[in-house]
Amino acid sequence: MDLLQLHWKNIVCFVQKCIIYSMPILLSACASSAIQKPDEEQVSNQQSEASSSEQQEQVEPLPLTPELIYYILTAEIAGQRGEMGTAVDLYHQASTMTESPSVASRSAQIAIFTRDQQRVNRSLERWIEVDPTDADVYILQAPFLMLQGDYDGVVKAVDTALELAPSMAHDYLTRISDNLSELVQPDQALTILQQIQLYQDNDPEALFAYGRLAAFFKKHELALPAIEATLEQQPDREDAL
């Protein structure tokens, strides 16, 4: 292997590692930016938790070209400098050059910290385009739809995620309930949960999520029947007792 080939191989390895390991650096850069609004801060905190677990996953091989490497490396450098708008625009450009879920999800993760709704929507839509079977992206999309007041979109996103990953129903509904408790008025929040297909199907996880959220809003007359219905199906469920 000559020096040029070795140099190229090293660059490829570096770019792949950037996608896995550099999110903490970007998060540190975000911490030095302007103070977030309460709603946006809650969404961003959830995203940082999700992204930290994703760092442990192996990124799929990328069809790296000189142009793609340029955009990714420049985006990473911009992110390390705290230039989040530049970083997300460069990453979005990179995401349009390859059908890589890793690059698209990375673009979305960074976009969230710009607090720019247009950038967030654009990056999430691209992620869905390249990986429509990833349930996580729909759950990630839901709180931003709440901020826009698109409650029908919230229901659709949650239903899609639960259909794609039914085993994640408890975790997803817990996250959505937490989002609703922070971002949506009580009556509207409870209506959204009632419209979710699992609730319509009398699923115990959806019933429990509804009862939990109703109790949070101190609507005990709504919470008690939902919890009782949950226990009828799962009498040994400890968190409902």
Overview of the structural elements:
- With 241 residues, the chain is mostly helical.
- It folds into 2 domains: 62-128, Serine Threonine Protein Phosphatase 5, Tetratricopeptide repeat (Alpha Horseshoe); 133-240, Tetratricopeptide repeat domain (Serine Threonine Protein Phosphatase 5, Tetratricopeptide repeat, Alpha Horseshoe), CATH 1.25.40.10.
- Helix content is 76%, strand content 0%.
- It contains 14 helices and no strands.
- Helix 7 packs antiparallel against helix 8 (135-148) and helix 13 (204-216) packs antiparallel against helix 14 (220-233).
- The longest helix has 19 residues, at 3-21.
- 36% of the residues are buried.
Number of helices: 14
The CATH superfamily of the largest domain is known as: Tetratricopeptide repeat domain
Low-confidence stretches: 1-12, 20-38, 50-57
Q: Please identify, by name, the CATH architecture of the largest domain.
A: Alpha Horseshoe
The shape is elongated
Share of residues in strands: under 5%
Mean pLDDT: 82
Q: What Rg do the Cα atoms give? A: 20 Å
